[in-house]
Structure formats: structure tokens, C-alpha cells
Amino acid sequence: MAGAATATPLLLIAVFLATQFPMVVLPKPTGPYDVGTRYTWFVDESRVERYDPTRNRELAVQIWYPARTSSNGKYQTLFHEAYRYGPIDELSLVFGYLRNVPTSSVIDAEVSSDGPFPVILFNHGLYLPADSNVLLMEHLASHGYVVASVSHTYESLKPRLSHGPVPFELRFANDVGFSNEEVNDGGIGDRIGEIRGRAHSELMTSLYSYLDQFVNMEEPEQRVLVATAIRSPDLSLLQPTLTEDHLYDFFQVRSAVRNASTHTWTKDLGSLLDVLRDLVPFGQQLDLSLVGVTGFSYGGSAAGEFCKTDLRCRAGTNLDGTQFGENWKSPVPVPFLMLYSNTSPASNDYAYFPASNEFHELLVQNAKHVDLIDSIHAFPILKTAEIETGQIEMDRMTQLVNDIQLGFFDEHLKGITGAYDTAVSLHSKLLTDDLSIQRSRANP
After folding, report:
1. Of 55, 98, 122, 357, which is most buried with the most CB atoms under 10 A?
2. pTM surpassing 0.70?
3. What is the pLDDT of residue 109?
4. Which CATH number fits the domain 4-173+259-440, given the four candidates 3.40.1210.10, 3.40.50.1820, 1.10.287.110, 3.40.50.620?
């Protein structure tokens, strides 16, 4: 499965090239409500910032919601946190043309009085902005949801906080204990990404079984464990990259960086729910007893981990994200949907099966990882040049993701029986060669 860390440099290049294209017009949401949006931030006084221990964790949030008709309002532009705030920098120069791409979201529009509305939390991909799937946010909001997307500070594009804009950091957080220059997994991570399906899941089960032991040991014991692990037939697929030093560094990065970030992002979601009602002037229009969680790529991992560990999650979805997290063996106790591109189907089975509740796993044939970022509409060069994208036309792909997400949350948050099945049937020709095989796995 391609990661957001891989997709992001390509995305930056594509944006630069896309400045040569005419004005982009984004598709409109289809629900009965107009869409309002609000941008704000808050400080979690209970946590220290991993990247800057002199500060507490501060998080920016963009919120989309059902609004009263407000045709005279000001519309939010796409990826606004990249270029609107602070001094002109590389990001502002590259993304600046997007100030001419309006979304359908009216800034600070008056909320509809039809609530309270269920809440959906969204998680962006690694180093992407909070509104990277803005068409999905608008679609859900137009159909009666309040959608809150948190910018995971220092791992988001450039959110504006109380002390100004904070660009993303490619360095490891201060509490990791080593820098990215000090570790080298010899390509183990890349090799894992090349292994598909059941073989990938079985390999990850073995790796995480060793990792569970690794994190509770001192270095001498860790070295002994690694020496044992590389002789295991279970890890033979990692040859010829498998050496003691490479596997040791892989375990370090997986535990102290990848799993730690998933843990941090999960805590961010909990912190947001703690204060969400007070962050907006329409807090009483939020139904916090009906909370769904979703995310793209790395954000899908945060969605899965949150729904495994926080009882406030009532249903969740993962958009093509590799599942990280120390709770990899814990089942998701609520209805959950894993939506894969064709990059690596079934690769998360090690973290999701056996399921303890209703579980759905769908594969979008002929789609690649970046296809699930719906703001690809602003970067048509990605499709033209086939950069990490598949063969499905952009509007069709956006409609598929939006319909399935809405159907899933309508069924499990609003109690609309059959909403998910209806959405799946609309797009069944694109989802899998044999839908009955995939759907048979939905039963725990």
C-alpha cells in the first residue's frame, strides 16, 4: 500500500505543474443542506508537544456543518492553511494558485436549526492538510453531519495555531531518542509494502509478535531477540534485506515513530471530542452520542486505533491506510469499513480479524492510493500523467467514496437500514470481481 509520505512529494510536484492549467471547478455536494465551515484551534493542557517540549500540544481544527442558505457568504478556498497564514515560504509559493479554487463551504455560515447532528472525525494523510478530502467533508455535511478534521501538528501541512503557522517536520519527534539519520532498515519497510494480500497480513502478524516483545526489553535483550527473529522462516519474505542491524532499526522506527504517531493522533481525536462542543458557537447542535471516525492513509490508521480504544466511537472507516498501533491484536468493537485501493488488498487483516462486530472490507478495482484524495480534482496532472492514480475517472471515484462513506455512517449512526448495501450496489462493478467473496467476510 502506498503511503502518504510517498504520495506527498509527488503531490507537491503535481501542484507546481497544475499552475499551468486553467481554473479548476470542484464538484458540488449533493445533500439538502448548504455547507458552512469554521477554522479554530485549542490547547490540550494535559499533554506536552512531542516536537517542542516547551509547549503543550496545540491543535487546529476545521469543521464543516449543515448550514442555513447563505449565498452571499465568503467561500473557503482549497488548502487554505498552506498559503493564507504567516510569511511567504515554499509552501505558499507552490500552493498559492489554490486561492483561486473556491470550495462549496461558506466561512462561518449560520448552522441549520435541524440538529442536533451526528459528528464525524476525519484524519488527513501524513503531511497533508486537514481539508485534503474536502469534497467528502462537504458531502457528509450537506447530508446532515458535523465533520471535524484535526490538523495533527507537525505532521500536517501548515496549520495556523495561536503562535502562527506551523509547517510539517520531516525530523523525528524530540522524544523518539534518535534521528532519522541514525537508523537504516535496509529497505525492510519498502519490501513489506511490496508484499500483498494474505502473505502481507501473515508477515505483519509475525513482525508485530516480535515487536510486542521488543518494546519491553533493554537493548541487550532486544539484540538477542532480533538475532532469533532473522532466522525465523516467518520472516523469509524480507530476504535479502534482512540483517540484524536492519531489523533492529526497523523495530525502533515502527515502535518509536510510526506506532507512536498513531498513538498521538488517537489522543488528538480524544482531546478534540473533549472540547468540541465548546469550540463552536453551535455546540448544542452536536450529538456527541453519535460519533463516527474516518481517515485517509496514515489517518486511516488513527481512525482504526481510535475505534479500538475509545468507547465514544460508534462506527469507523479506513480509506486505504496501513494500520499501525500497539493495539494491533485488539478487535474493533464497533462497525468498521476498510476501503482499499488496488495497491494492497487485505493487507490489514492482521489488525482487524477476527472481528468482534460488523466488519466490511471492500476493494476498489483499478484504483490507486492517491485516487482516494478527492482534492485530486485540483491537480488533474496526476491523472494525466498517471502518477499514483488508477484508471477510474475522478468524478466517478469521488462519487464512489462519498456514497459508500455516507451509506455506512447513515446506517450505523442514523440507523437507516440498508443505506450501506444500497451504496455498495451502486458501485459494485468497480469494487471487486466477486463482491460476494468480499462481503462474506463482513460477518464476525
Report:
1. 122
2. yes
3. 94
4. 3.40.50.1820
